[in-house]
Fold each of these.
Amino acid sequence: MNAPLLPPALDAIRAHEAEMVAIRQQIHGNPELAYEEHATSDLVAERLARWGWEVHRGLAGTGVVGTLRAGTSTRRIGLRADMDALPIA
């Protein structure tokens, strides 16, 4: 990463820290198994849309894809994350 970009990026992350913690607590407090994570999918899609992301839903039922466009660049970065819980007996 370009060193001059790091401090502003960290400041932007810190500005959203409380919201991110609240989202994590909500997701972890309401675990959903694979392909049943409807509330989690709704939460993620709603937040991405609120933050200005282009949101696509319905992939494999509960999947969410968010696209953030900036300027005219054609460069892309991919990030994948699981949203499902593991069953614990």
Amino acid sequence: MNPNAIGNPRVSVVIPTFGRPAMLARAIESVLAQTITDWELIISDDEREAGEGWAVACAYADRDARITACRNLGVAGQASNLNHAMAQARGEWIKPLYDDDELEPSCLETMLDGLRRAPGAVMACALAIDVTPRGTERAEKIGERLPLEVIAQRDAHFALYTQDVDIGIPSQVMVRRDVIESGAAMTNASGMPTVVDLLWYANVLRHGDLLMVNAPLVKRYQTGHDSITNNLSRESLFEEFRSLRRAQLDLIPAGQSAPSLEEADQQLRLIHAALELRSGHIGSALRLFGSTPVAGGHRLFAFWLLRRLFPGRFGIVARHSVSEQLMDRTQPRRRAA
């Protein structure tokens, strides 16, 4: 903790970083540019030996008492570095920001304002702006979505399991600190190295509702750097996602009629086929389309595709406006489809 820090801020921005000093500086500058000042920034450096990234973090910490630089000297990796940063947080809310991403100036203010109106939420997610290596920006479509929508805790895991909600990357979320402290930290689950963030969301949402802030508030840079995903075969990825689906299915409340694992697996293959087709890999797409005979999987895929084409429509679980969410939550809600 920075010894010059004063009081407890409303939100703690945490940046886990590893060997990308220029990107780290850009991420830090986006925090400094926020429209509110009631924040702290914790930078956790995962390099085994102090390098340029550590020098950048320390330089900013020396200039601003709200910034703390620390080193993760324990187990290395995405999950442990993020957890190390979150363990230093003092704010009511924690805002992850990966070092290759960037916050829009109104990000913290907009998300905190939404969470103030949704007292049952333990996590908020915002839309993103994708930035290509050439600098082209493309924001996620808002469509017919309301500015603030809530998926109730009882429906959240059904939505995750059926691909009915896109929470995005950790830089797009804000999480209540007491939920993390109660045990909902990011874990290195065996056999699921590339979906640790999705498993983390599922664990957090055991504790409350999901607030969707439908505004593009985070820039995701497509850097082209190597990742775990790039080094796994398609079948390895499918098996990993199948393990994730199994974990998500176990969290769906009794009484909700969830699709089978086979149907969820077929949906995933069809989604991958659609993405392959969009990338121009026609042969691969046709092979994937031809290997999905399960009717239930086709239905789930159709809802996913329609929701992508027409944001705000064709949801499987109900979305509630913030005003609805503040009403008597004991009344039963019907599914949107």
